[in-house]
Amino acid sequence: MSDVKVLVKDNGPLLVTGPITVTDAAGNVFDLKGKETFALCRCGASAIRPFCDGAHKTCGFQAAERAITG
Ligand code: FES
Asked: What is the C-alpha separation between 22 and 12, in angstroms, rounded?
């Protein structure tokens, strides 16, 4: 079982918690500044992609997916 969790926030980012490395397409590692929880943008409006800067709150992004269970 992985120690990494990803919470899909309603109308917001992917909230990632756990020991994880984030790289760009060239394999360069993003500096997470020691944070074990951080948010990845999924609205596309962030000025600091791939991370969320809160822009989803004002860009009209709407998404509230639910996992299919059972
Ligand atoms: S999800 Fe927060 S800025 Fe895109």
From this structure: 19
